[in-house]
Amino acid sequence: MQQGTLMRKVKSKNWKKQRYFKLQDDCMTIWYQSKRTGKTESAFSISDVETVREGHQSEVLQSLAEEFPPERCFTIVFYGRRGNLDLIAGSAEEAQCWVQGLRQLIEPRSFPLTSALVSRTWIRDWFQKADKNKDGRMNFKEVQRLLKMMNVDMNEDHALRLFQAADKSESGTLEGEEFVLFYKALTQREEVLSLFQDFSEDGKKLTLLELVDFLQQEQLEDEGTEELAMELIDKYEPSETARARHVLSADGFLMYLCSPEGSIFNPHHRSLWQDMTQPLCHYFISSSHNTYLIEDQIRGQSSIEGYIRALKRGCRCLEVDCWDGPNGEPVVYHGHTFTSKIPFREVVSTLGKYAFKVGDPSPGAGCHGWPSAGGATRLVPGDSKSHGEDGHPKVPTSPSPTPQELKHKILLKGKKIGRLEDTLDGLGDEAPDASDDDNGAEAEEERRKVKVGGTQHSPALQKDKESLAQALSDCIIYCKNVSFRSFQEARSHSRPSEVSSLAEAKARKLIRDAGNEFVRHNAWQLTRIYPSGMRTDSSNYSPQEMWNVGCQIVALNFQTAGMEMDLCDGLFSQNGRCGYVLKPPFMRDEETPFNPSDPSSRKGPGPITLTIQVISGQQLPKVANSKDGAIIDPLVRVEIHGVPADQAHQETKHIENNGFNPCWDETLQFQLHVPELALIRFVVEDYDKTSRNDFVGQFTLAFANMKPGYRHIHLLSKDGTSIPPSSLFVHIRITE
């Protein structure tokens, strides 16, 4: 990659500033400076970059399409809520140099699995950070600085012993392999070595039979254990000699425990593992609210980036609120607010590129072509794949189609003239149904309460009773909006092809007053829940209480990080991240007695006991914006999210001044009455006795995806992205 390239940094059609961009010597940082002043403006780390997109793939670059060819344009996309960086290179060759170079730098960002096979990139990164005078060597003072950077408050005498042991040349400095030795000593895992020696007769290796014993007794692997043991040795043993003898060394053992096979998340559930031939209403469906917004609900920015991020996160239900725009071109924005507008045409183009993207390495990607639903007050894009040559929809004849039947199709959710049966018969001459999900009486009342810019809008502005075009009506298949009046009325007059939308407050009231009826209703018809209109800051409600009664389309503001989105990501991280999760059997029965407020109503075995031994942590990150030299005091909180009787949390004590290898060795115990609906959230915080604890990392998963035994939990950031090599080491026991 070139070092020091003049490019245009673009923020709008009229804001294009020339900046020099340069990759630093550490190959981990990029800074850019003003061409006019020579002053460094900003810098970012390669680890902050999620992906690089070529061409006109942002609203800003699309607006400049006539001025600059796509070959010179590219967009750097960052993790979290940081804005994208749109750049225009001086030539197509320069653009390709940066695009390919950045991709090579961000692609191998895998974390070191063991102290024996630590990534050379990872070691080089730490070495260069600590080598303050850049002489390629590290003296003891620089080692002490490194320990502070790595979140370690180590006794000076002990640090000196590690330093001297690694200094084989006795030069008083570390270089090359000496630093590797120091790093290995620093990352020695005593708790894992002790476990290894419990099953190793000679304390140096695990024979094939000893490894089988460990897998059966501790990991509770019960099928094909000997074959699994052979696979693990072949895959994770670093020594060729040991592999040939079918034994596993201590380094290989640690490598297995840090691998996907040693993760708390069942690796078989990462891929598609559930039945996809059930009716749509039998699945929880990953859903977003006002997908186009990436900030607040009143003055925030609308962007196609909202759709890209949601789809790459596995979202299957999107919102496209369409309104009349200039020159007869529709625009998308949050109506009757000051949010910015984006052309409807750009939204459709974006959905075409990302709706069924397969094999994307980014978090949340891999929708595998499962059907995507769209909801809008005016209009939503369709998919040509779902229509025949005559323009009529190509749809399964069943009134309750399955995800398998609807694969690679986009369903439109909205108002409809007449019935589904009429559309399939080519009819449809009835008057429009005036029902509208988000514009019902309840939502209208909420919007009356919301003041925009200090002015309270009249109800007339909040809802337009426009006539519905027949062509648009004919696109509504299976997801016709109907107003919800009561469960009895729905049972008598509604159809499985229809869907009702409820604000969160209305849904909570129904849960309190008629929990069992709500579960039964959701066994045969779709229900969508959306945030209160009072959540102008794009905050979220807890989706768990809605899932507890079987609501399928629980719409959240994907742009807002926090516990609610952690639960959403945790539930939908399974089943190939396809955005569909099959509900438990007792929630798919239209005559089910289940009520989440009464766990005994669930058919099946009694409560189970979940015992979690929190053993240790590894290389926990520092708190954002912390002071130089600050070291965290970590604690672990385990939260259970499920039916009311299962809601609970417990936490460990905090460990002072050790974010590198804290050891808690504490046991937490929970009783789960409805484990099928339980989500387990592990949260690491930096303890503060005078103020609120600071967030460090988290990991959330459904109980159904949890593996027993000794497991590693690879932590995620507040935005749900990986923060290698940070992890927790735990022991899980499940008893009835």
From TrEMBL:
Subcellular location, record wording: Cytoplasm; Endoplasmic reticulum; Membrane; Nucleus
Taxonomic superkingdom: Eukaryota
Catalytic activity: a 1,2-diacyl-sn-glycero-3-phospho-(1D-myo-inositol-4,5-bisphosphate) + H2O = 1D-myo-inositol 1,4,5-trisphosphate + a 1,2-diacyl-sn-glycerol + H(+); a 1,2-diacyl-sn-glycero-3-phospho-(1D-myo-inositol) + H2O = 1D-myo-inositol 1-phosphate + a 1,2-diacyl-sn-glycerol + H(+)
Biased composition (Acidic residues): 423-444
Residue span of region Disordered: 367-405, 423-458
GO molecular function, one term: calcium ion binding
Main location: cytoplasm
Ranges of residues in domain EF-hand: 118-153, 154-189
EC number(s) per entry: 3.1.4.11
InterPro entries the record matches: C2_dom, C2_domain_sf, EF-hand-dom_pair, EF_Hand_1_Ca_BS, EF_hand_dom, PH-like_dom_sf, PH_domain, PI-PLC_fam
Membrane topology, as annotated: Peripheral membrane protein
Gene Ontology annotations for the cellular component aspect, listed alphabetically: endoplasmic reticulum; nucleus; plasma membrane
Alphabetical list of SMART domains matching this protein: C2, EFh, PH, PLCXc, PLCYc
Domain C2 residue range list: 588-717
Protein name: Phosphoinositide phospholipase C
